[in-house]
Amino acid sequence: MKMNILLVAGVLLAGAALAQSASTQVAPETHPVGDIPDSQAFVRYSSVAGHFSLEVPEGWSRRTQGQTVTFTSKLGAVELSVQKGAPPLTLSKVKARELTVLHKTVRNLNVTAVRDVKLPAGPAVLVRFTSTGDVNAVTGRATRQDNDLYVLARNGQGVTVRFSAPLGADNVDAWTRMAHSFRWQ
């Protein structure tokens, strides 16, 4: 009889320890809307027409329209555009050409930085800005967006790579990874 009581007491103690450890477990990690998780897998996309490749998030939908390919998910978008006959890349030319286009095509544009950057594929110009995104068909609302636009050029071939996500999403690591994965072919 004493043995059974000890066994029951041992089970009760073990059950109490499990209940206590369950109550002190860390809550699951949460991300802001649009935040690409660190566990996101990437795949290499190659543009035959644009003679380049880069890594994009696996599983994102792809849409091609003319010389533009867009990858989207609820986490944001990556838009790749090819320009034939692009002039040599300079900061002043990007400011004159790309900023003019952005002012005409992007709602509520607020440019926060324009600077030269060095990528493994060569020199680029980075334009950082916020904007108002497209109106959501379900909610009827448009969200503010963070954007990074990389402008690259080589041998008369120009490529712009635009990353966008809801304002405040922490995509610095994912966007940097994709930009640094850009390769000319």
Tally of separate domains: 1
Q: CA-to-CA gap between the ends? A: 80 Å
- Structural shape: globular
- Whole-number radius of gyration? 24 Å
> In the CATH hierarchy, what is the superfamily?
Mog1/PsbP, alpha/beta/alpha sandwich
Give the percentage of residues in beta strands.
Answer: 35-45%
Order of helices and strands: HEEEEEHEEEEHE
Strand order of the largest sheet: 3-4-5-9-8-7-6
Number of strands: 10
CATH topology: Protein Transport Mog1p, Chain A
The helix/strand class is alpha+beta
Spans with pLDDT under 50 lasting ≥5 residues?
Answer: 4-23
Main sheet specs = 7 strands, antiparallel
What is the tally of helical segments?
A: 3
CATH secondary-structure class:
Alpha Beta
Second-tier CATH architecture:
3-Layer(aba) Sandwich
Q: What percent of residues adopt helix (DSSP H or I)?
A: 10-25%
pLDDT averaged over residues: 86
Structure characteristics:
seven-stranded antiparallel β-sheet; Lipoprotein; signal; globular; Protein Transport Mog1p, Chain A; 185 residues; 10 strands; three-stranded antiparallel β-sheet; lipoprotein
Description:
This protein is an alpha+beta fold. The protein has a single domain (42-184), classed as Mog1/PsbP, alpha/beta/alpha sandwich (Protein Transport Mog1p, Chain A). 25% of the residues lie in helices and 44% in strands. The longest helix is centred in the N-terminal third of the chain and has 22 residues, at 2-23. The relative contact order is 0.18.
